[in-house]
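Hello Y.,

Per our agreement to keep a running log of every chain we model this quarter, I'm adding this entry. I've kept the format consistent with earlier entries: sequence first, then predicted structure.
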Amino acid sequence: METLKKVGMNIVVMALAVAILIVGALPQDLTMGLFTNYYLRLIIPSILRIAATMALAWVVSAKLLKIDAGELGIKLGKPDIKLVLIAVALPVLILVFYAFVLPGKAYVARPGEFWKSAITALFAAGIPAGICEELVFRGMIYRYMKKTLGTKIAIIVPALLFACLHILNMEKFDVVDLIILIVAGSSVSVMFTMYAEASDSIYPGALAHAVWNALIVGGLFGIGDIVNGSANKSYIIIPVESSSKFLTGGNFGVEAAIPAILGYILAAFLIALFQGMILKKK
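Predicted structure for the entry above:
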C-alpha cells in the first residue's frame, strides 16, 4: 500500500510538473503581442516565462511536496568548468561533424539576419527552454522521484516522459522515427540528469540545454531539412546528403540521429567519470 501511495504521488507530481510548464509559458504567449520591437518581443516575454515557471515550481514544491529551494536545485552555486566545457563541446562537435566530416556544405540561407537569428536562438529556444525544462524535469520530477522511489527509477521514468513529450513537436512520423526519437530523448534526458546529479543544481544542465538548443535548433544553425520537427529556416544551413534516418534523425531532425545519441551518452559518461560516480577518486 505504501508503494502504491508513492507511485500515485509521483504520477501527480509529473502531472503537476507538465502543467507548470504549460501555465508558466502563458505569460510569454500573452505578452509577445504587446511589443512592436522584434527583440523586445522575444526577450521580455522569455524572462516572464522563466519567472512564472520558477515561481510556480517553487510554490508547488515548497507547499505541496515539502521540497525546499536547496532540494529543488535552484540555489546558485560555484560553476564547474568541466561541466561548462562539456556543455559547449557537445553541440560544437555535432556541428563540426555534419559540416566537415559528412559531404554536406554549409551555406548562409538568410544573409543579413545574423543578429536576429542569434537573439532568436537564445531567447526563443535556448535560455527559457533550458531553464524551465530543467527546473521541471531535473528539479521537481527527478528529485521527488529519487527521494521517494530511488535513483534508478528517477532516471528512467522522467527520461521516457521527456522523450514522449517531444513527440508533440513532430508533424509526421513512422515507427522508425518514433523509436529513434524515444531513444534520443531518453539519452539526452539521462545526460541532463547527470548534470543535476553531479552539481546538485539545475543550472549546469540548464546551461547545457540552452547552449544545445541555441546552436542546434534555435535558428542560428540548422542541420538537414528538418529541425526539431519543423522545416529548417536557420541562418546557416548544413545539408545532410544522406537518406539514412540514422544520420538525419528522420522527421524530428539530427537531435534524434545516431551522432547526437552517441554524443549524449559520451557526455553523460564523462560527467559521471569526472565527478567520481564511476571510479572513486583515490
